[in-house]
Amino acid sequence: MPTVRTQGAIRNGRKTLAGGFSLVEALLVVMVILIIAAIAIPNLVHGKMRANEAAAVASVRTIHVAEAMYNNSYPEVGYSGSLANLGSNGSDCTRPTSTNSCLIMDEALTSGIKSGYVFEVVGDGNMPTASYTINASPDSGVSGRCSISSNESGDLHFSAPGTADNGGRTLGGGGGCDL
User: Fold this and answer.
1) Cis (ω within 30 of 0) for the bond into 42?
2) What are phi and psi of 53, to 5 degrees?
3) Are 79 and 70 in contact (CB under 8 A)?
4) What values do phi and psi take at 45, rounded to 5?
5) CA angle at residue 75 from 70 to 76, to 5 degrees?
6) CB 54 within 8 A of CB 104
7) What is the pLDDT of residues 60-96, one digit of tens each?
8) Residues paired with 123 in a beta bridge
9) What does the pLDDT look like over 86-113, one tens digit per residue?
10) Cα separation of 88 and 106, whole Å?
11) Are the CB atoms for 47 and 144 separated by under 8 Å?
12) pTM here?
């Protein structure tokens, strides 16, 4: 007659293995992840700053084009003395005027804060306004390194904190501005 094994005999024949990771293995994985993060995070922050700086340059150029259009549309006023006048300024844009010209439809830009930069338009104070200056400066030290300015000529000027203007160059960068 054949012999039949019992349940206990089958269990006793298997070897049991400990499951999971040891503490050393877990610590090693955590250390590798921290090393990768230490390398990647500064590069991500630097990339974000460069993206903000490039967006600020594009916004300054947008403001410059809007100012030229504003000057052509309202010659009795000249250039706009504020960003709000270049936007909708709370209107529905059915009847643009010199205080709500609807030339820039980006509400963030016409509010003066966009992509980590603070934008300001300053007129010369004359009537009609014959010149203006656009200033874009980083909101904080992590949103950008370069301040950007322009005027009615359209030349862009870059400067980093504590350095002189780079002479209106639009590419390359002086003083730590490497756009």
Assistant:
1) no
2) -65, -40
3) yes
4) -65, -45
5) 120
6) no
7) 999 999 999 999 999 999 999 899 999 998 889 899 9
8) 132
9) 999 888 989 999 999 999 999 999 999 9
10) 9
11) no
12) 0.74
